[in-house]
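FW: tagging you since you asked about this chain on Friday. Here's the raw sequence from the shared folder, copied in full. Didn't touch anything.
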Amino acid sequence: MHMKTRRQFMRKKMMSIALATVSAAGLISQAAPVLAQSAPATQPTRYSVETTLVGKLLDDPAAAAVLKQHIPTVYANEQFQSAGRNLTLKDIQQYEPEALSDENLAKIQATLDKLPVKN
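HL: got it, structure written out here
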């Protein structure tokens, strides 16, 4: 196996394991009973690479198209589409530092800023 191919394989494998672990932790916390009712949170007025969950972005066709345009390889990753739903793009940056560099996140944010938030 060539060094670059092996490195890509290992990075993809590490991302899969990390996303699966984080996703499992998120599912456990979601399954815990709600002990207190809180007032409904105000809806965000824009998407954010730092605070919006990938799942919300994927559920909005316009936002999903932005991800597909800017990070096609990450977007096509099955783990991103499933386990990554409970993370933000900033969270996933540690697993995909090249595709989700600060520069690329800024470009994604600039494009997302043009979209209305889908409720």
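FW: Residues 3-27+45-112 form one domain.
HL: agreed, and The chain has a mean pLDDT of 84.
FW: great, closing this out.
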